[in-house]
Amino acid sequence: MSEADSPSSGRIERALAFMIAATLGLSVLAFLALIVGTAVGVRDFGEGVWPVIIFLPLIGLPIGFVLMLVLLILNMRRRLRDARGSR
Predict the structure, then answer these.
(1) How far apart are CA 59 and CA 30, in angstroms?
(2) pTM for this model (two decimals)
(3) 86 class by beta-carbon count within 10 Å (0-12 exposed, 13-18 middle, 19+ buried)
(4) What is the per-residue pLDDT across 63-83, written as a single tens digit (0 to 9) for each?
(5) CA quadruple 33, 18, 57, 76: dihedral positive or negative?
(6) Cα 86 to chain center, whole Å?
């Protein structure tokens, strides 16, 4: 493995990790907003920003899960390549 391959794979993995954190964090915040909205007494979730807040976890959580799988696969490939190169 050459020196040029190492930084790009690290950069991609770091970017994926930040994307995962942002996607899952935004979805959790949307869940908390729904809980707080219900506790405060919001009755009509069909108006204003509420449809977006309801829709966010429906898309964000599966995307975050897929990104986690991609990160896991990239990490496993990098470790296998490093292990084969060190022999």
Answers:
(1) 11
(2) 0.79
(3) exposed
(4) 999 999 999 999 999 999 888
(5) negative
(6) 32
